[in-house]
Amino acid sequence: MHNQPAESAGPGAEQEYKTFTKQSSSLPFGEKLSYGSIGGPTYLTAQTLIQQVAYALSDKVFAYSAESFDLDVAIKSWQEQGEKNAFGYQTGVSSLETRTGAGAIALGYLFSKDFDLSKRHIPQSIVASSSTLNYLRPALDQLALLYSVANPVTAHIAAVDYSATSNAGLVTDYVSSLTLAEDLGLGLVCSPSVFETQHMALFATLLSSVIPTIHTYDGISVGRETARLVDTLDQSRLHNSYQAVLKAVSEVDKKHSDNAGRLVRLLQAFNDEFGEDYRLFDYYGHEEPESVLVVFGTVEASLTAQVANALSKDGDKVGVINVRVYRPFVEEAFLEVLPKSAQRIAVLGQVKDEAAVSDVAEYSRLYSDVLAAAQFAFDRNVQVTDIKYSREQVWTPGSILDVFRQISEKKTDEESRSVDILNTADVKQYTFWDLDESSAATAPAVVGKLLSSDSSKNVFVREGHDNLACGGVTRVDIRNADYTIEAPYPVEQADVAAIGDLSIIGAFDVLNSVKADGSVILQLPGVKDEDLEKKLSPAFRKTLVEKNISLFILDPTQSETVVEEATLTTCLCQLGFLKVARPDLLSSHISKLAAINGTEQICEKIVQQLETALREVKVPTSEEDFEPIRLPTDINVNSFAPFVREEVEPPTLLKDWKIAAKGLAFKEAYGAQTVLRPELGVKTSVVTVKEKRRLTPENYDRNIFHIEFDLGNTGVTYAIGEALGIHAENDKTEVEEFIKWYGLNPDEIVEVPSREDPDVLVNRTVYQSLIQNVDIFGRPGKKFYEDLGNFASDEQEKLALQTLCTGDGASEFKRRAEVDTITYADLLLEFSSAHPSFHDIVRIVAPMKRREYSIASSQHVTPNSVSLCIVTVNWVDPKGRDRFGQATRYLNGLKVGSHVTVSVKPSVMKLPPKTTAPIIMAGLGTGLAPFRAFVQERAYQKQRGEEIGEVLLYMGSRHQREEYLYGEEWEAYQDAGIITLLGRAFSRDQPQKIYIQDRMRQSLSDIRRAYLQKEGSFYLCGPTWPVPDVTEVLQEAIEVEHKAQNPEAKKINSRREIETLKDEGRYVLEVY
């Protein structure tokens, strides 16, 4: 930004333009922070405080931070500036990668022969996220065994991880810390709020003098929220308090005190030092509660405490116990705070994912400890339940209220009841929505910093990024209060919401978080009032009217200053927001704003231009009927930084054999490893074909075959219902033909990065790559047509390829993909002027993927083998060419003794935890595979003398003579009393077609008994088409059973009951 002329200051006068620069969302207001400024009343983030404690009280800090997490951004800056720690020298900072063996360097440093033994008493710190703990586990395990001769070690763990299996993106992960602490005997301390973070980081460091300790905290919101802390400890006070507490407990003979006893004494000394009343377990709520909730976690502790206090004021007999220190788990301290009036104890326990939530056989870690502690504490029966939630769960006051409603006998009155933990009359709340690439993206941070200049107020700023919506969306919430508040959740009742782009209101229900009678500022460049009705959706306009929300349009084209210099849009947004939300600051705080971002002259000029650039409008409501679209009310926080739009192509290089030879000869120097299929992101093993037999006649048009693999000494294990991943290979003859006509050297070496991990480079010959890596005979998407067009030298071919990527070519593209089933190789042959080199082919052609098939055997019955049931996928294209499914063709071509690379994948198809629970199975064609494993397992259980429940098997295919798959086995199991009902539906063996749902309907009474009366589980595996019909039969069973049990009752909502059964894991589909 060039210097702006300061016209009012006289001729030739200039004033330097102050540009606000954000470094990281983990820093207060995103700005750099000097080490010496931490102390007393100041604005900080929890992550900054944790880094300060680690830097001040450590000999060395080992940091494992993902690039955008910035868990170590402050300590690296302080080290570069030469800041000294509390022990008088510069703290060592090692920023390391999260990978296998991650803790080896830290462990090696601690036990190095060269280690300075005079520093053995000085703590060492680890700064990481919970995603790192699995990689640190081996090192921490060794450390725990050798701890008596090691330095104190504290791991400050941000409870955040990526989730590839859900839409959440980033998830709050306490499970990893809970599991590691329990398994390895580590200490585990949790910060319940940003205001206690520094104290808890210090306490965890002190506890590390007893056992290696993990200090965990919310890593998504609370850990990165900028907040005002009144009495922050500077380095000197930190060190003095650290020494004072250690001295107070050093007088105790360690030999006569276990870890739990030393923990209690340590906390007492800590409280004495700071004049606090911290407890291992904190209780909040009613004095004589009947229902008590036990929680662990930052947001969980803060919200449940506030909601419990609010409910108890209304007379609800509920309370909550926050577990501040999970390990060592001091049962006496827990029972001391547990009210004697408690009749019900519920544990709000985190588990890994939704599958674990649904699995009745899995319990949360916290539940096991609470159950053990409470079991013998009462002379009466006290119910202890486990309310599991997954890492994806985002807690709000409303969702916490639902939990209390669930555990309270009173059910907290009516369903519509809400709870207010913030006095909205005293707390002003603002929300900013904008695109990452907006020139005004820093405006919210500037506003937050401006508001923080009022020392009588408390400002809280939190930021999140959704890089998968609208090309990258940022949401920033600001709360401004007269007093300290705890609100670890998104703003739900904004006084003012600022929206930086029209596309955002098309992707999110922004008005949902704006309170009635609030205001919305929408940036719409160049839009006239008469065009607003076309620009704004009917639903948006209707909500504006219903909630009486004032709409302001901010138009940058109406500001001459912004038109001349587009980068000044951020100043316009800041001043426009202040005019709507805080008009009192427009005149009194211009100089303060200019000191943060801008100049006084520019700000004053833009304020004058706001008369035309900012206008309030009345939007007419829509009289037309419209179908409301349910939009998400908040972003999915999947990043801590804006979306990076620069795409760097992976280094795919052709090399000669000498390069590969050097890597094999000098593995350590070249970082080479001998690994089975290193490019794959899953554990693989090589198994051998033991048996392969066709299940359908040779002259039948469908080739269905049974294939069994010998596991040998691979160590492969699999559970009932899991799938076997086949890492297939392309047909050798077709690969050789492609190499020949494309003019490739099959023996040339190609080094390619793995698509699942770009850091893993794989050396292969061209031939090997086409056999195992490159899906050259797969079906291309539009992106390949687009990429191939860039290589075409013939203009007509280039135009044809480009047209296929547009709307005009949509029907032709669909025909090519679905009718002609064109492959990558076909396109390279068709468009001969587009002849990319092989390293470009590797780059633009999709990699081969494993194909997964349900396992058709129980390892209890066949411990050294695994079976599959496969149907060969084949067809003839319009040109008369035989086409095949890549994986089934590969499997069909295998001979006994052939080697195959496989991996095991978990599945939702699991047997009920109780052997006596009935199972009802419906399988079509090869969908019978997992049920063969189910029946084998039930037979095994019965052979062991266990009581088993009913087994109902419904199977469907076209003809009994040709497709009665495993028919003799089913009948043998029926004769043996394993299968109690065998419903066979062969659709084409009689004039009237009979399907699987017809056989189910004929035995509806059996389904009612097994499924509903005996609480069995239903499973369907096969194609998707019968799902509605089969589900309809189950709904009939539910309705008939309900009427039989309750003749006078109203008709039951059977669809809702199916959803309930699905949530309970008793209605399971695996369809394709």
Q: How does this structure look, described?
A:
By secondary structure, the chain is α/β, with parallel strands linked by helices. It has six domains: 40-233, 3-Layer(aba) Sandwich (Rossmann fold), CATH 3.40.50; 281-408, Rossmann fold, CATH 3.40.50.920; 428-478 and 488-617, Pyruvate-ferredoxin oxidoreductase, PFOR, domain III (Pyruvate-ferredoxin Oxidoreductase, domain 3, 3-Layer(aba) Sandwich); 683-728 and 850-907, Translation factors (Elongation Factor Tu (Ef-tu), domain 3, Beta Barrel), CATH 2.40.30.10; 731-849, Up-down Bundle (NADPH-cytochrome p450 Reductase, Chain A, domain 3); 911-1071, Rossmann fold (3-Layer(aba) Sandwich). 34% of the residues lie in helices and 21% in strands. The strands form ten sheets. The protein has a seven-stranded mixed β-sheet with strand order 5-4-6-7-11-10-16, with helices on both faces. A seven-stranded mixed β-sheet has the order 20-21-19-22-23-24-25. The longest helix is centred in the C-terminal third of the chain and has 19 residues, at 1027-1045. The protein is globular, with a radius of gyration of 33 Å. Mean pLDDT is 88; it is low at 1-13 and 648-654.
